[in-house]
Amino acid sequence: MGITIPHVNLPIFITTPILDTRFKYIESYTAVRKEFKYTANSNKYDMVLKMDSWLIFAILALLIWGFWGFFPKLATNYINPKSVLVYEVIGAIIVGIIVLSFIKFKPEFHAKGITFAILTGIAGTLGALFFILAVSRGKTSVVVTTTALYPLITIILAFLILKEPITLKQGIGMIFALMAMIL
């Protein structure tokens, strides 16, 4: 059992008995596809659910960031927020070393890519510091909800700089998100 994503083949198989008619059916969804494939060695079809690769990683990020938002509250019960940040960076270095090992310690080099990656690290670390300071002084539920609105900034930057359109649905969602913060 599993899910098919690029470079990793972990299909979810749900076996269904169907008449041997050599029928093939593919239905596409935004993130999940159902495919019925004939199994050559039997008289049945296997239904394979395939998720688009971005959805798997987005769900994993959601789950891990949930813990990321919770652990600092526990840590600041024992050490000060600046110390928490130092140890968080050590955790990030550990992950970085693991990722480096996957690419055989040969990261790509491009001046603009490196510049934006370093800016990402600076923004992420400063954001983490401010988050830890906020969560050490406030209620975790309120701090996490407020800081979870950061995608609004990303969407606005993508609109202004990358010229990515904002749909009516996205615009309404942004307004509701701002209203939620006010409430």
Strand order of the largest sheet: 3-6-5-4
Beta strand %: 5-15%
Shape: globular
Number of strands: 6
Q: Determine the number of helices (DSSP H or I, runs of at least 4 residues).
A: 6
Helix content: 55-70%
Mean pLDDT: 80
Order of helices and strands: EEEEEEHHHHHH
Low-confidence stretches: 1-30
Summing up helix and strand content along with how strands pair, one would put the structural category as alpha+beta
Question: Which sheet architecture does the biggest sheet show?
Answer: 4 strands, antiparallel
* Structural domain count: 3
What is the distance, rounded to the nearest whole angstrom, between the alpha carbons of the first and last residues?
Answer: 43 Å
The rounded Rg comes to 22 Å
What layout of secondary structure does this protein have?
Elements: E1 4-5, E2 8-9, E3 12-16, E4 25-28, E5 32-38, E6 45-51, H1 53-75, H2 81-102, H3 111-137, H4 140-147, H5 150-161, H6 168-182
Antiparallel strand pairs: 1-2, 3-6, 4-5, 5-6
Helix pairs in contact: 2-3, 3-4
